[in-house]
Structure formats: C-alpha cells, structure tokens
Amino acid sequence: MDHEALAHAAAVVGAFGACGLLLARERILFLGGLAALFAAELGLAYALVPDAPSLLTESAARIGALGFAVVVGLGLAALFVRYPAAAPVALLLAAPFRLSVGLGNQEAFLLVPLYAVLVAAALALAYRALRDGDFPAVPYLIAAPTAALVALSGISLLWAKDPRAGTIALVFFYFPFTVLLSVVALTRPRDWTWRALAAALVAVTSVFAAIGVYQAWSHTEILAKQDVQLANAYSSFFRVTAVFQDPSVYGRHLVLGIVVVLTVLWLALLRPAVGLPSLGLLTLGLYFSYSQTSFVALFCAVLVVSLLAGDRLTRTVVVAVSAALVLAAGVLVLAEGDGDSTKQVTSDRSTLVQVTWPVYAAHPIVGVGIGSQPLMSRREEDARRQKSKNVSHTTPLTVAAELGTIGLLVYLAFLAALGRAIFEVWRRHRPLGLALAGCLTALVVQSFFYGGFFEDPFVWGIAAVAAATVTFLPRRGTAPA
Known about the structure:
Elements (H helix, E strand, L loop, with lengths): L3 H20 L3 H22 L3 H5 L3 H23 L3 H9 L4 E5 L2 E5 L1 H20 L8 H16 L7 H23 L7 H26 L7 H9 L12 H20 L5 H16 L4 H18 L2 H25 L5 H4 L3 H14 L10 H6 L2 H6 L8 H34 L1 H18 L9 H16 L9
Antiparallel strand pairs: 1-2
Helix pairs in contact: 1-2, 1-7, 1-8, 2-8, 4-6, 5-6, 5-9, 6-8, 7-8, 7-19, 8-21, 9-11, 9-12, 11-12, 11-13, 11-20, 13-14, 13-20, 16-19, 19-20, 19-21
C-alpha cells in the first residue's frame, strides 16, 4: 500500500476517536470523537484508494451524482432531526444490502446503503447534541469493552502484516459500526420503536426468503460467488443466495427473522394465522440455502428462546428432544464420514484451523494485526500446499491470531458485556430481551464456523439496541424516568 504511514496515523486517530465517542459523558468529547472518526475514515479511504477524489470528480455526471447524494443525505439528516426514532429502523432496513464498488483494481460488495443512512443519522445526532441541553451516554457496560475492542483493532494496524486488509476492515466495518452503535444507543426509543424494528426485520428477511424460494424453483442465480455457481452446476442440489453472494450469509439473515417470529409467537404477541405462514416461508427459504452453519445457529437460537420463554415442562421436553437430536446428528455425521478424512467431514474447517493456529502460536501476545491472519496463514509451509485461501472461519481463533491473547480477552469481555446487557433488557422489556438473546446466540454460534462476526452490522445493532434499552427504559416496577 503506497500510503501506509497515512493509514497508520488515521488508524490511531480513529482508535482515540472511537474511545471518545463511546465513553463520552459530555457533548464536547462526543463531538470530538465523532470528528476524529470522520477524519480517520477520510485518511484511511485516501490511503486505500488515492485516486478516489479524482475518480469522483472526473466527469460532470459524477459531480452531479455526488451533489445529488449530498442533497439527499442532508434531507435524510433533517428528517432524523425531526423524527429521531426513525433512524434505527432506517438503519436496520439498509443494513443487509451490499453494492458492488471498485477499490482500485479490485471489486468489493460494500454496505453502501447502510453507510449513506449512517452518515445522515450521525449528522442528525451531532446536531441534536449541539441543540439539546442534556446529553445521554452509552452505558459503560457496553461502551468500555467495545471501545477497548475498536481501539485495539485500530492500533494493531501499526504492526499489521497485511496493512491493506487491515485498512479495509477499519474503514468499512469497525469505525463505521462504532458510529452505528453510538447513534442507535443514544437515540431515545418510542413506544413503537421495538415493534417497528421487529416488523422491519421480519419483512426484509421474508422478502429474501421469497427470492430464495423462487431461485430454488427456477434455478436462477443472482449474485452467487463463483464457487457457489460451480457447486450448483455439478451438485444434485441447488443452493440459493437471494441478494447475497454466499448461502451462509443469506441463511444468517433468515435465522434472525425466524428468531423474532418465534419469540412473538412464544409470548402470544402475534396471532398464529399471521406468524405461522411467515415462519413457514422463512424456514423454507432457509432450507434451500443448505447452509449447515445456519442450521446449527438456528437450532441453538431456538433452544435458547424455548428455554427462556417456556415453563418447566416445556424446558424439560426441549432439553430431552435437543439431546436426542444432537446425539442423532452425531451418529449420522460419524456414519456419513466413515472412511472420509477429517477435512471432508468438517467441510475443510479442520484445514483452516491447522493453518491459523500456528499464526497465533508464533504471535501470542498482540497477534499479527487486524486483517492479517489470511496472509500469515498463507505463508505457512503446509498452507501453500493445501489452500489458496486461508481465511479462518472461526472468529475466536481469528481474533487470537490477529490481536493475540490480549485481543481474545477483550473479545470475551465484549461477549460477556453483551450477555449482561441483554439480561438487563430482559428485566425491562421481556419480549425484546428474549429476541436479542436468540439473535445474539445465532450470530455467535455461526461465528464459530463461519467468519464475519465483527463485519456483520447486526452484531453491533444488537449491542446498540441493548444499550438504548438500558439507558432509556426503566426496570419493571420502577417509576419511569
């Protein structure tokens, strides 16, 4: 990367800015953190694509499109100033969608709609912070471990073995999602906010499921990656992806929708005549993904929701049935895998572990830097003979390799804080706490077998919703603030 020194400086600025944004208890510190993150984003973007300014202004059409985008963004920001509670719903609706964007000589699918809505929401929040006398704060329960995680990730770019990959992770995920968490956590929810979020999630995932079912019926591919297309061409089954590139990412979104529908059905907040057809559509769409990681995540999420929402008899039955299913699945895997290598039985996951663990063992304290695990694994002697791509599909192992033992401890503290925050949400709003617990379970479980945990905006969204609930919603039995 040509401007590596600029990327290092911007990453450090962004790390301090994230701490200021999340830990701020006064408006000046919050606005300073937001400005630092904005400056870090510009610096990292320029370091990544130095010719981006000239590309944006090389023609009158692009200048006009840029001006139109600015006007639309300012209009959206004005809308969020007038109706702040609409911002979290708009962010959720935009979160799943990715657009193809050129990064120099590479093509990437980025969360462009989410970034656009996020900029408008951040501007609106900054305006409200300047206008209003009182200023809420992100609870330390969420703010402290998240700030530590983002700061460590940003500073780790200083020793990252693959600075380009680390820059991409910071500029497109960690720093923007820090702003996402702050925007949602500091936005006072209305009585309808939780219902609107649930309805938006179920509606969006139902559309994805409908597209997936149509793809399964017509054998139509939209954005599937090349390896998925090859598998569909030579396999007896057809994997669908809807508007995503990967069946597992598609399945992850459908699992979240299923968890929400199941939660409201469990608590009798939705009529079965409405909930059951939605649940059936989402489940059918998930089936055609043939994503084993999504199935496992759904199983664990349903187990958590059922244990938390059911009575004593229900819990006993659920535990017994779950144990029987796990035992049967284990026997089936052993029977199917008889004579096969561990690599085949685990869908090549064992190979990924084998080429990732030595990276952590060689750099156990602070790791090889954010985004650098695939490159360092590729340099392992065995990895050269086994795979051309060595991206770990196990988030804890990836964190350990890239951020070392320190990063692994911070990651565990982040998960523990999320669990504690969701428990606090449970004490304030039982349906919301149950839905968040199920969704977080699904995302965490899938992250053990499939990457992209911190690159998923829904992880940060769950933390943000939990933080907003703890901040603005009193516990049951107490007087409202």
